[in-house]
Amino acid sequence: MKSSSGVPFLIREVHGDEIVLTPRNHKLPARARRTGYSLDSMQQAVNKDAQKPPVSDGRLTLNKVLDWLVEDKLVEAAAAEQLKKERRYYRGALHPLVTVADQKWKQAAPPHRALGIEFLSEWLAKRVGMDYLHIDPLKIDFSAVTEVMSSAYATRFRILPVGVTSKEATIATAEPYSREWEKELAPIIKREIRLVFANPQDIERYQVEFYNLAKSIKGAAKKHGTSGLSNFEQLVELGAENKQFDANDAHIVRIVDWLWQYAFEQRASDIHVEPRREQGIVRFRIDGVLHQVYQIPPHVLTAMTSRIKILARMDVVEKRRPQDGRIKTRTADGEEIELRLSTLPTAFGEKLVMRIFDPEVLVRDFKELGFSDDDKKRWDDMTQKPNGIVLVTGPTGSGKTTTLYSTLKTLATPEVNVCTIEDPIEMVEVSFNQMQVQHQIDLGFAEGVRALMRQDPDIIMVGEIRDLETAEMAVQSALTGHLVLSTLHTNDAPSAVTRLLELGVPSYLLNATMNGIMAQRLVRTLCKHCKQKIDFNRQEDHDAWDALVAPWKSNRPAHVYKAVGCLECRMTGFQGRVGIYELLLFSSELKSQVAGNADLAKLRDTGFKEGMKPLRISGAMKVAAGLTTIEEVLKVAPPIRDTHTPAK
Ligand SMILES: [Zn+2]
After folding, report:
1. What is the pLDDT of residues 350-364, one digit of tens each?
2. Does the fold of domain 362-523+577-615 match that of domain 225-357?
3. DSSP, res 488
4. How many Å apart are CA 388 and CA 485, to the nearest integer?
């Protein structure tokens, strides 16, 4: 769903089965801002165009479109004439906009934007006075819309149903003057028809995909019956003999392939396949936020789950016990992707979550991870020592694994032995020796480290320190000359010290082994295609900034950026995430306080005095740099607490 175009006209919201077209960009002319299309306004739109050069009732011609492009100063007259001449005898079915987009022209006048298909579609929609719709397949209930007309009908008139309510059907077209079907269809479907303009390439693509997919779901539903045997009461009956679903059914295979393809295209990090009472639902997590994308009949959902479990070599029959597994697959572009699966029995059946690991994403450059020069220097201070403990803290999903993998990768030279004990192994990296925790055979983190110690390691990564036993093993390894990297679930860096003391690690051992602690969070980054620079000088801006950095004082930036939303970022205004960091070095001053049983506030205070920037300040710097927003930072970073005298 990549497109070069940046200006959204409409987003579609789904409220139950109601579909609402809402304007997104408030700078649009009144005509485009109108929500919804009545037949009256359609008529006006057509009448208005009647004053323009007359257009025959029928498909758009290339000549006409080129004339308009020249009129609107998008294309030079000479180039248009040249193309007209070349295509004089062309009798194919290519839409004129596709032909123009194929020229890869740039706007004749500044700002010389590329005339891509999405840009041209938006332009033409405005030109003919229609609402423009970017078709987002994740937001369309294809089972419902494909009921509006047959596939053959849609193909014949080059139209695509994209929304349907009890009163109205929304139909996308790229042929504003080819409308003979409208009169015919409205009485049959007993609904008003609301016409929107969409990219002709999308219409063609989704005509095939929506109908195929709807057919698959219907086919699968018919085959597997609608017995509704998916809720809790039935769970106990499902035994080894139960062969209710054919997971290799071609329909199910197609639906699963389609699901993955879309998840990859949308940069989803997790796919949730969830049985519910009436409908199964599929949700994608994109940049940390869940989006519901499909509703699927429960029995079809169960068959999908079975298919995926078979591919992951999980026990298909066992539905009462949580299981995990993994699948390696490739995207359409041949990129390798690993999926980690876990199932959970819920009241309505088996819930499946697939976490998507893109190896490219797991190991990243420190700049990409969001390390400032100062962060990087402090991090190197901790990790480039031959021995000692380095901890990364933060909640699940704060990017700790990516940081550790990326660091280990830089440390793993042929001269050193890097070993890991993980739960589970998130990414297989050839330069590490990785071992997975296996509770059923009593191989926990502590046992793992013990075993690794006999393997002549130099650097050890322990997935997580959860108990005293693991903490003691980490300390032992560090004392015997190894570098140990691990994670801990605490809110900020200084809390990790008190957590370890609480677990029972003696302060003198902590002081003897700890190199440093880093707390981290991920904030969503503003989409670089649509973010908007805004002045930052109103009183409320000042208050927001001061609240963010309180109780510290920090110079306010003159400008910040706000989220807008475009096709590149699925209208969210954000694309990707970046880390914010708080790095606590174990200085001699800090050690003396640890030995003296100093409280958390005092440790924090010392950290600040010695240059540790709290997470919110680290986030504020990203806001000032135009990478994210104050709200994003506030969402993930805890307040700066318990400081006695904040440093400057
Ligand atoms: Zn954007």
Report:
1. 999 999 987 666 677
2. no
3. E
4. 9
178-192, 225-239, 491-505: the lowest-pLDDT one: 225-239
Per-residue pLDDT of 203-221, as tens digits, reads: 998 998 888 888 888 877 7
From residue 324, give the alpha-carbon distance in Å to each of 51, 302, 352, 421, 599. 65, 17, 9, 18, 41
The two tokens of residue 373 are 């020069």
| Residue that the structure tokens 């957590």 belong to | 499
Fold of the domain spanning 225-357: Beta-Lactamase (3.30.450)
Instruction: Report how far ligand 1's centroid is from the alpha carbon of 526 (Å).
Output: 8
b/e burial code for range 414-441 (CB count within 10 A of at least 16 → b) = eeebbbbbbbebbbebeebbbbebeeee
Please state, in angstroms and rounded to a whole number, the distance separating the CA atoms of residues 304 and 310.
Answer: 10
Show Cβ contacts of residue 11 under 8 Å, excluding neighbours closer than 6 positions.
Answer: 21, 22, 24, 565, 571
Helices (H), ranges, 190-238:
200-224, 232-235
Domain ranges of the chain: 1-205, 225-357, 362-523+577-615
User: What is the amino acid identity at position 186?
Assistant: A
CA of 417 to the centre of ligand 1 (A): 43
In one-letter notation, the amino acid at residue 549 is V
List of residues 6+ apart from 398 with CB closer than 8 A: 520, 521, 522, 636
Class in CATH terms, 362-523+577-615 = alpha beta
- Find the farthest-apart pair of alpha carbons in the chain and give their distance in angstroms, rounded: 90
Q: What per-residue confidence (pLDDT) applies to 253?
A: 86
Task: Work out whether strand 433-436 and strand 323-330 pair parallel, antiparallel, or are unpaired.
Answer: unpaired
Contacts 24+ apart (CB under 8 A), 81-88: 87/62
Task: Return the amino acid letter for 80.
Answer: A
pLDDT of residue 262: 85
Distance 27 CA to ligand 1 centre (A): 16
Q: Measured in angstroms, how far is the CA atom of residue 543 from the centroid of ligand 1?
A: 27
| Residue reference for tokens 């096709």 | 567
State the distance from the centre of ligand 1 to the C-alpha of 25, rounded, in angstroms: 12
